[in-house]
Amino acid sequence: MSQTQNISTRNALARLSLGLSMLAYGTAKLSRNPNCNKGRMMVALGAMKAAEGTVKYCPLKAMMQQQGMMGHTAGPEVSKLMKDFAGQGMSVTT
């Protein structure tokens, strides 16, 4: 199974820096209190975000693109619905 990069370089750098910050914060929390669930969660999420930034691949984004849930893949259907919605709800009656 091959994977292609699905996030930009800027997005990858943001994920990497946020992930490493979360990892450091979680590690600091766990060093003070080893039973801290918040620290464990921060370490796990931070490691996942740092890995996503390193390999420039986000599995959640890939699943959403595959299912057609991203805004740029929906295209005309979304713009038609927005026009219909804006046309219906803007009239004021007294």
Describe the structure in brief.
Helices cover 74% and strands 0% of the residues.
Helix content: over 70%
Taking pLDDT < 50 over at least 5 consecutive residues as the criterion, the unreliable ranges are none
Q: What is the number of independent domains?
A: 1
**Assembly of the depicted chains:** single chain
Q: What integer is the average pLDDT?
A: 83
Overall outline = elongated
Q: β content, as a range?
A: under 5%
Structural classification? mainly alpha
Q: Number of helix segments?
A: 5
How large is the radius of gyration? 20 Å
Order of SSEs: HHHHH
Largest sheet: none
Compute the number of strand runs: 0
Q: How many angstroms separate the termini? A: 61 Å
Organism: Paenisporosarcina macmurdoensis
Protein name: YgaP-like transmembrane domain
Domain Inner membrane protein YgaP-like transmembrane: 4-64
Describe the model.
By secondary structure, the protein is an all-alpha fold. The protein has five helices and no strands. Helix 1 packs antiparallel against helix 2. The termini are far apart.
